[in-house]
Design goal:
Blueprint (H helix, E strand, L loop, with lengths): L2 H11 L3 E3 L5 E2 L5 E2 L1 E3 L8 H18 L5 E5 L3 H12 L3 E4 L12 E2 L7 E5 L2 E2 L3 H12 L3 E10 L3 H9 L3 E7 H10 L5 H9 L4 H7 L4
Parallel strand pairs: 5-6, 5-8, 8-10, 9-10, 10-11
Antiparallel strand pairs: 1-4, 2-3, 6-7
């Protein structure tokens, strides 16, 4: 079993990813989606979260990334960044969704020194916005970043474009396409549903209307 299929299986078994093209989910943004991803559920399963942590580290080592600090995205990337930093005995920082409105008004918590190299740990990459914002915050603090690591990516063009524009390399443990294929093997969805669900990644804003849910 490949790493991608291994991770996909974990996410599906723990209901960290739920697929439903017949009764889709409505996001806070109003977007209708056949997929709901919540990797936070991994926190409840020590064995599985350690497995994911070790697969992150394996991917990091294979990438050849050179770094001094592990940076986590708020909020879902923080626990994974903490577990990775602890295992590697390295400093960690995390980037808030927005700067505090009191005290030192920090956007980034922790310490990164001028010129230090960092990697960003994200759980899910959809549009890539949260990962890009974290990268920018670390760079503005003097850090250098080339790599972002995630558990899963939806493979959206917007994310690919944003990563390229910001000179970043994304390494994801699994892909949405592999999750769908694994879900079919596990009996969660049928072959016909795969293209319908995968189509959502091409045009998420209009998928609901196109499929008669709006």
């Amino acid at each position: 079993m490949s790493t991608s299929e291994q991770v996909a299986k974990i996410l599906l078994e723990l209901n960290a990813i739920t697929l439903n093209s017949k009764k889709p989910f409505k996001y806070a943004s109003g977007i209708i989606s056949p997929v709901y991803t919540d990797c936070r559920v991994l926190m409840a399963y020590p064995d599985k979260r350690r497995e994911i942590r070790d697969l992150y580290i394996e991917a990091i080592n294979k990438s050849g990334a050179k770094f001094d600090v592990v940076a986590g995205t708020a909020t879902a990337g923080i626990p994974h960044a903490a577990w990775i930093a602890d295992k590697l005995n390295l400093p960690m920082v995390y980037v808030r969704g927005k700067a505090k409105d009191h005290g030192k008004e920090n956007l980034m918590e922790g310490i990164i020194k001028e010129g230090q190299k960092a990697i960003v740990i994200e759980d899910l990459v959809s549009t890539g916005e949260s990962a890009i914002n974290s990268v920018k915050a670390v760079r503005e603090a003097g850090g250098q970043i080339v790599y972002v690591f995630s558990i899963i990516t939806y493979g959206m063009e917007k994310a690919k474009t944003s990563f390229a524009e910001n000179k970043l390399k994304l390494v994801s443990l699994t892909t949405f396409a592999d999750v769908l294929n694994t879900a079919r093997k596990m009996g969660h969805i049928n072959k016909e549903e795969i293209s319908t669900i995968l189509d959502w990644t091409s045009d998420p804003a209009n998928w609901g209307k196109k499929n008669g849910f709006e």
